[in-house]
Design brief:
The structure is a homodimer. Chain A has about 280 residues and is of the alpha/beta class. Chain A folds into two domains: about 170 residues, 3-Layer(aba) Sandwich (Rossmann fold); about 100 residues, 6-phosphogluconate dehydrogenase C-terminal like domain (6-phosphogluconate dehydrogenase C-terminal fold). The first copy, chain A, contains twelve helices and eight strands. An eight-stranded mixed sheet of chain A has the order 3-2-1-4-5-6-7-8. In chain A, helix 7 packs across helix 11. Chain A is globular, with a radius of gyration of 21 Å. The two termini of chain A are about 35 Å apart.
């Protein structure tokens, strides 16, 4: 099986390792606009070869798109001569705009997937062996993909240890706004507010596990997140509004010294224990 | 050396283990108003004995107070017949109100400390061996503690692997508001906003490392955090205001589709890389 990976950063690079370890006799060709990333991916053994062009990658049996979400849309529109049996799997963090803008003639080739994994690091050097293992991948509007493509995608994701969850693309984007995109905006806001008010020495001295965890994803790639925020703008704005309401509530209770209510509000938050 | 630990939860329990492992010939007596916690601490070997009363604990050479910050103030005020050589070390997350309300006759006995460590778990069963190792402990207004007490506290904290940092109590509370207390409020707000809008199934499916990390401390003890928010109310409100300003900025840039500015704002947040 010839597998092409377009985008050799954290997601694409880690996928290369996982596929090589779990799929028998597969050949993995990588492609990235960044020549340094290509050299690193080859050096680190994330892919078997670097393809000279998107055209060559587009002849693979399976093509993964692990690039920012705006680039996924552009790449899907640029594909030429895709074989009817080719499976194209995009790994974007937003789904509605991607499936809506996919050219009709390759819509059955596409499997729209969102693997719920990642770290704040990026580039091929950030790739890790177990990034996908035991994680969820959300497959969106899967009934719009061809039967062959559905089968290939499910087989590959399960082979690298993922649990498949199925969702409608718009529902995915609404949920992802709350559970992934808004928390990223929050982490960027937290990092900026603390760095504007506190010096590096105090931050280093006082940062416990709480701040470290909450600010970790503020180190994520601006280029990747600019695209995600743009594509999921309306859902993100609603999620930010709801978060803001809770923050205002907290602020008012502290302001008005409503300690019993505040305790109840924190006890509500503790219920997350029952879920995660 | 007889060491007393008042409060046998995560902090006190973990301290018991660390002291037993690192201090030669010490005897550790525990005390907790919760009888179950006393039984668990003894069973888990966190302490050597359970003291029948605060009076007995107050005869120890060193007394650690690992209880909520309001209870620290009440306990300090209730101490009777403290020996001039006794070292009392409070581990509260706020410092200004504690040092200000310590009775003058035991002020030299007190070392006001804030170990920058913890987890979202609580109770003796949450105690872990390495909680303090390689972490920072902030010692506040140390010049107000007696020379003997300063020496004892530094020796004990260093023996369990901590790095001592020195700070004025009010400065500590201002810094802690940004780097610890406000992020906790934020995590509670995030957990509540997501749980009010999303069902458990979607949260489980879509929660990646980002959301898990950011919501982890929303599981923290409401009793402990109610006290901290009360004692550091004014600093917390200012920190929440600054966080809110960053969030509003983000919201406006997304609303107005100012993507280049948003990218720059996220790039600013990335600078946290250089600090943590």
């Amino acid at each position: 099986m010839r597998i092409g990976i377009i985008g050799l950063g954290l997601m694409g690079g880690s996928l290369g390792i996982a596929l090589k370890q779990n799929i028998d006799s597969c050949h993995i060709a990588g492609f990235d606009h960044n020549a340094l990333h290509c050299a690193q991916a080859l050096e680190l053994g994330l892919v078997d070869t670097i393809a000279p062009s998107i055209e060559e990658i587009s002849q693979c049996d399976v093509i993964f798109l692990s690039i920012p979400v705006d680039a996924i849309i552009a790449t899907l529109q640029g594909f030429k001569n895709i074989h009817p049996h080719c499976t194209i799997i995009d790994l974007g963090s937003t789904k509605a705009k991607i499936v809506a803008s996919t050219p009709a003639k390759i819509r059955q080739n596409l499997v729209a997937a969102h693997p719920m994994t990642g770290t704040e690091k990026f580039g091929p050097t950030a790739a890790v062996e177990a990034l996908y293992k035991d994680k969820v991948v959300v497959l969106c509007d899967l009934e719009k993909s061809g039967a062959h493509q559905q089968e290939v995608a499910l087989r590959l994701f399960r082979a690298i240890g993922m649990r498949c969850v199925f969702m409608e693309a718009h529902a995915h984007d609404r949920h992802a706004a709350y559970i992934s995109h808004m928390p990223h905006a929050l982490s960027f806001a937290l990092a900026n507010s603390v760095m504007r008010q506190e010096d590096a020495k105090s931050i280093t001295a006082l940062a416990g596990g709480g701040f470290r965890d909450m600010s970790r994803i503020a180190k994520s790639s601006p280029r990747m997140w600019e695209d995600i925020f743009r594509q999921n703008r309306s859902n993100l704005l609603i999620a930010l509004k709801h978060l803001d309401e809770e923050l205002q509530k907290c602020q008012k209770m502290v302001e008005n010294e409503e300690w019993e209510e505040l305790n109840g509000w924190m006890t509500d938050a503790n219920k997350l224990h029952e879920i995660l």
